[in-house]
Amino acid sequence: MKIFVNSYIYAYDRFFRMFDFFENKDSLIFILPKLWKSKGGKIRVVPTEKSKFKIIKTWAPFYHSHYPVVKGMLKGWMPFTGRILGQLARKGDVLLSSGEPNLFSTYLYSRLTKKMGLKHVFLTFQNIDYDKRLDGTKLKITNWLLRQNIKLSAGALCGTYQVYEVLKPYLDNRIKVAIIPQTGVDVDIFKPGVGSDFRQKFNLENKFIFLFAAVFDERKGVFATINAFKKTLNDIPTAHLVMIGMGKLWSQAKDLVNQLGITDKVTFIEWLPNHELAGIFSSVDVLVHPSEPYKGWEEQMGSTLLQASASGLPVIATNIGGIPESIINKKTGILVEPKDIQALYEAMVYLAQHLEIRVEFGRQGREHVLSKYSHKVVAGRLERFLNSL
Predict the structure, then answer these.
(1) Domains 3-184+374-387 and 198-372 share a fold
(2) Class (C level, CATH) for 198-372
(3) Is 3.60.20.10 the CATH number for 3-184+374-387?
(4) Which of 47, 209, 273, 331 has the smallest C-beta neighbourhood within 10 Å, fewest atoms?
(5) Mean pLDDT of all residues in the chain?
(6) Which pTM value belongs to this model?
(7) pLDDT of 259 over the 80 cut
């Protein structure tokens, strides 16, 4: 049995590395965008050739969620997938399209595979009930797509247990379901003790560093982080906040720092390649990631949180979405309620003042990732699931 994988997410090498841990690599055939764009087209990704894998590159015309009329319903769709499958696939093979079941692109793939006698698998990270996010015509269309994609597919991957609870009311006994994320964490890159000149480069020796590394938008608690950090300086005068990312709130974040009079205590860095975060995680003291609900969205799993934990870094995050599955409260980090600046401040001060707790959280955080979220663990579970269909 061959397994065809056509998801734009695997155009990124850091996500693709998971497949190095598949036992039967010869069974895999990847259909990937020959060019993928993200961050509004600012980042352009071309899949690299891999000697161990067969990769077919094709056209993916829709790369964001803001198109007129169709919005994000066709994001990641590759129109020539049918032609490629027609040449290479045989009845009983699997197509892992890794698309959400409420997208029209997923429906096109599920219909195509049903017609060809293939087994289709979709993936979902939707962790808010659909009827709490949508209403009217949008909800009717979404419910129809969900039921059609479940009816036409052989398998579904739910990124977290919370996601499974959202999908469960739509399921029937014809589809097989597993709780497996789309990719894992590269624990050989993200590990304690990675060498870095980060502190020297930014003149941060002898500072207690809180790190914020996320998109600068309404979902990530940008302003909550800054306001809580301001309060923290009263207790921890050697504290410094490093904020890494990009996004529409970048300028407002800088303005707030100026208004609070803490420009010498905050360092802004535009987005860095993912692999460079490993050295930074090993150089700072605490990751702060206070995600907030926004327009029917909550943090799904938090790959940055897991990478930080794999690096032995204690985490402060919020008790929403899939975060409680990634960060175990009072074991690998501290969870607070969204937008609770006082609680966030107290958690920051507590960790800054308790080295032994930071060390223990970091140790248990890495163990948690190694046991559940490493590339090796996720790949093994995914391969077994796909072969069981």
Answers:
(1) yes
(2) alpha beta
(3) no
(4) 273
(5) 95
(6) 0.93
(7) yes
